[in-house]
Amino acid sequence: MFGLLILRTGGVHHVSILQQRLCCCRSDLSIHLNLKNTSYLSRSYYQNAKKDCRNVFQSYKCKRYLSTTQKTVRIGCASGFWGDTATSVPQLVFGGKLDFLVFDYLSEITMSLLTASKAKFPNQGYAPDFVHTAIAPFIKDIHKKGIRVVSNAGGVNPHACAAALQEVVQKADLNMKIAVITGDDLMAEKDLLKETEITDMESGNPFPNNLHSMNAYLGAVPIKRALDLGADIVVTGRCVDSGVVLGPLMHSFGWKQNDYDRLAAGSLAGHLIECGAQCTGGIFTDWYKVPDWDNIGFPIVECSSDGTFILSKPPKTGGLVSFGTVAEQLVYEIGDPSHYLLPDVTCDFSKATITEVPGQ
Q1: How confident is the model at residue 54 (pLDDT cuts 50, 70, 90)?
Q2: Is the Cβ–Cβ distance between 99 and 147 less than 8 Å?
Q3: How far apart are CA 90 and CA 245, in angstroms?
Q4: Is residue 345 classed as helix, strand or coil in its secondary structure?
Q5: Is 183 left (phi over 0), alpha (psi -120 to 50) or beta?
Q6: What's phi and psi for 196, nearest 5 deg?
Q7: Is the pLDDT of residue 68 over 80?
Q8: d(CA 244, CA 269)
Q9: Is the pLDDT of residue 60 over 50?
Q10: At what angle do helices 260-273 and 243-253 cross, to 10 degrees?
């Protein structure tokens, strides 16, 4: 099943295609939450799994690094968009007690901007601030603490992003494995897709003649594979936002592609933190209740192998984790809450409940 989203920018088009792998899913969700923490319990039912879309993974050859014996895994998200504050990285690296540090940079407009940049300068097309501002100043601390990094900062040129990261690693005299995930760029399939008479899933507009870029949303499986092979830093192109969290969880706990209940739980964990400080009060309707905006805390999920998790932020940071901030993020950009489409799983959040437990 394909969904086509067409974005027109400056006379050219960017096309995003959602390749849906699983369908007919239901989830009954219950979230228990205190003023600083959130945990999640899901029960889901799925059927009719379809074949995987093909993803290309390139990395150094190395042994598998599975960590299924871990009781919990802590993942912090340091970016919700290209241009997000760089103060999030030291906050999470030094105060988050993390296993994984993840970054989400991409939107459809960002993909168009990065494509235009690459057209002018072939070695660009990725988020350079990820390399030079987020990672380079803290690379030795990230390495020392054993934190592994996953980011879609590769944009439309993940190889160039990885090459720039490799220079940072070499300059720091470190030995770190960098994985590059490709396969989202579908420009080579343009003519074939046009022949299918595919149309925009919302407007019904025909396939455009002047394409700027065309990318599929990849899922979490290639990220899991990269981590299984020992990558310290994983760079992707266009992947679904929550995949940067689900991939590490699949790797850490050995979740399989048919562990639908856990995939749903991991996807919700990823969805809640994928936009960075949005879930800690960044765009909260009751904004006046959010303290210390200038030091807003970025989110952390501490996940267990059964899919339950606690959502929090680093100590001594501003912002707010509450019923309202988490609930608003839960329904953010999911379309139909009973049919939330993701490459790895389709979720029904329509029966989700949230209970705030103060003082914990």
Answers
A1: very low
A2: yes
A3: 19
A4: coil
A5: left
A6: -75, -5
A7: no
A8: 10
A9: no
A10: 140
